[in-house]
What we know:
Layout: E1 2-5, E2 10-13, E3 21-30, H1 37-55, E4 59-67, H2 71-80, H3 84-101, H4 117-129, E5 133-136, E6 139-142, H5 158-164, E7 179-184, E8 199-201, H6 205-215, E9 219-225, H7 229-244, E10 249-255, E11 258-260, E12 263-264, H8 275-279, H9 284-292, E13 300-301, H10 304-330, H11 339-360, H12 365-384, H13 390-410, H14 417-427, H15 434-449, H16 453-465, E14 468-472, E15 477-481
Parallel strand pairs: 3-4, 3-9, 9-10, 11-13
Antiparallel strand pairs: 1-2, 5-6, 6-7, 7-8, 11-12, 14-15
Helix pairs in contact: 2-3, 4-6, 6-7, 9-10, 10-12, 10-13, 11-12, 11-13, 12-13, 15-16
This protein binds one RNA strand of 76 nucleotides through β3, α1, α5, α7 and β12.
Amino acid sequence: MRIYNTLTNSKEDFKPVEEGFVGIYACGVTVYDNCHVGHARSAIVFDVMRRYLRYAGYKVKYVRNFTDIDDKIIKRANEDGTTWDEVARRYTGEYYRDMDMLGVERADIEPRATDHIHEMIEIISGLIEKGYAYNVDGDVFFEVDKFSGYGKLSKRDMKDMMAGARVDVDERKKNPMDFALWKSSKEGEPSWESPWGPGRPGWHIECSAMSRKHLGETFDIHGGGADLIFPHHENEIAQSEAYTGKEFARYWVHNGFITIDKEKMSKSLGNFFTIKEILGKFDPEVLRVFLLSTHYRSPIEFSDAILKETEAFLDRYYSTVMRIEDFCSKNAGERKQTDAGENLEHMTGSFMKRFEEAMNDDFNTALAIGHIYELIKEINRYIDSSPAGEGAKKLLQESLSMIKKAADVLNVFNRSPKEWYVALMKTRQVPLSEGDIEDRIKRRREARERKNWAEADALRDELLEMGVILEDTPGKTVWKVKIG
RNA sequence: GGCGGCGUACCCAAGUGGCUAAGGGAGAGGUCUGCAAAACCUUUAUGCGCCGGUUCAAAUCCGGCCGCCGCCUCCA
């Protein structure tokens, strides 16, 4: 398995610290507002990595934190006339609601910063003792000049950064790049007792403390969005390695951004869509598949058009499943094999190998999904060639089970066609029940038996008007929700 | 200004030294169908931003140029 490491800017063979075990720490969210689709991407990317590592036979311990104390949370609480912990609680709940919809599994450990104040104080004290940090009037700063590796992750030189450093540099810092480990609290702000007086932790220290506690001083994979490389992850490395004297994380993994008109989606630019907004218009599975259709390190341009395309793909998948089910439910006739069967057999037999090759190469979900498309096409080709008999059924079921096995790792395609269409009726706000549709299909069938094509077509058009498509197959008429 | 990344067909997108450059969407034509829809078939890059170079061999490596983006401040 090869994983791209931001530390070396290259793909490396993956070798965990401990044989057969992988420790992953991914930076989660600051719970001060609803998540946007950029947060969804990060969560889904690491969710899939963790699932695939597990599939590959590793025992995985996945840690993802919540930052539940920070300036933005305090600001939000003041705006809403509530307390910081109420804000954190509310948006942690919203986070779970969104992520559950998107099929993001809970992490094994989901630590909160405020539950680890003691561990943070321990590290900060140690850093002061070792001469890596200094206290000025109750604020404690990390002294970057003391840590020789500073800049190794983000590949920047101290001199270059000096040139870029700006905006209200705290005069008390020895170097403008020094960052806060502990911030003294002003009157009325939330605070915790510490050797340096009441205050709260700086942003970066929580990840050093929580990863150390739950994964040890050296662990395998540390990740997050690419915007965390500097300063957040750079600072984590400095703190942790200065404190322990050991290598912090082995592989640094960063996902790319979501863009709107080529620009990074972000709160400050205001060009973002919340997960909830998108889920009002599309099925959650559409968003998940869309985000996995591009390699995790590349930027993804976000648009309605591309989501519709993804929706059409999912529809194709569920339509194919419906065809397979239909075929298997009635086709027990004379054994008949076709040439297409050989192709399908071959493709099915090699499918998992190709899936694994794709995923082993830095989690190439885009390629993996491409392989799924190909197999779907081959399945349809086979059904079109009119095979028959138990052997044909078995082959189709085997092909479908391969797709499902791969899809399980991505956690997509896990519903029945019917569930998909019922869900789609809801998101598309089709003003009909299943019963209404079945009723019309029955009336249409009667009209067709009388060869009253005008009436049959009128019924079909009426349904189409409301967003439902009818498809006549040799045996029966099936319905789908119109896509596009 | 410093550092990093990207540029593959009408659109999305995989591919980072070697068989005919995956796959999907859209378009065109066809098979099937009462008509449709779906599915399938055919078709759409002698070509991978541009110019040089290395190599028996490059979209893939090196250099230069052009364009776009990101980080350097909170940010997934």
